Structure to design on (213 residues):
């Protein structure tokens, strides 16, 4: 997938880097992996050399776009919000996490990402795993950490944090996420997201909480 070696010695402009990522995101979703780096640079309003000063080849650009997108599964502020979890009640931490998680999955655009990743995997079999580890996998690890800490604190009963996190994610998503992805129903409204997150947490905490009620 490489087209040009990285240009060394050029300082990176964060605004140009973001413009490249935004243009690449748009064009990858519209045209797939066949879009050229020249077209991405044109839409971003930068020289092709500037693109390669930031990303050594198209594969690294794809990975950067996917990582940025997958960060939405965690929070609008990345790891910062996760670091604040120790100062809040468990229900508040899980509710905030659930809202961001379901809003991300609620996007119909995810179908485009599925196609893009599947297409990339033909030539780069390791890319889906790297994408998962960079975004959804990292979100899963955060959820497991929240649950493991609650178990240690005596808020949740002893269990396998990985299995519990997987069950909670399943409650949040259900079959509705598949229907949205296939276009069989409209995306969830804000009220529906709120209800879905809170109902799932009610079921989860009834099963796992040590607190009465």
């Amino acid at each position: 997938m490489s087209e040009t070696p990285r240009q060394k010695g050029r300082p990176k402009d964060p605004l140009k880097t973001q413009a490249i990522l935004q243009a690449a995101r748009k064009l990858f979703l519209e045209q797939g992996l066949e879009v050229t780096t020249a077209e991405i640079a044109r839409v971003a309003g930068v020289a092709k050399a500037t693109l390669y000063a930031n990303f050594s080849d198209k594969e690294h650009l794809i990975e950067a776009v996917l990582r940025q997108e997958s960060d939405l599964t965690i929070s609008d502020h990345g790891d910062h919000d996760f670091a604040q979890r120790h100062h809040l009640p468990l229900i508040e931490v899980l509710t905030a996490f659930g809202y961001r998680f379901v809003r991300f999955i609620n996007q119909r655009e995810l179908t485009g990402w599925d196609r893009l990743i599947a297409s990339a995997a033909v030539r780069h079999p390791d890319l889906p795993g790297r994408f998962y580890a960079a975004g959804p996998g990292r979100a899963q690890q955060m959820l497991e950490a929240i649950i493991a800490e609650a178990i240690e604190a005596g808020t949740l009963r002893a269990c396998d944090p990985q299995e519990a996190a997987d069950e909670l994610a399943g409650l949040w998503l259900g079959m509705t996420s598949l229907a949205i992805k296939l276009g069989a129903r409209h995306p969830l409204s804000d009220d529906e997201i709120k209800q879905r997150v809170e109902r799932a947490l009610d079921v989860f905490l009834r099963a796992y909480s040590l607190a009465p009620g």
Observations:
- The chain is about 70% helix and 0% strand.
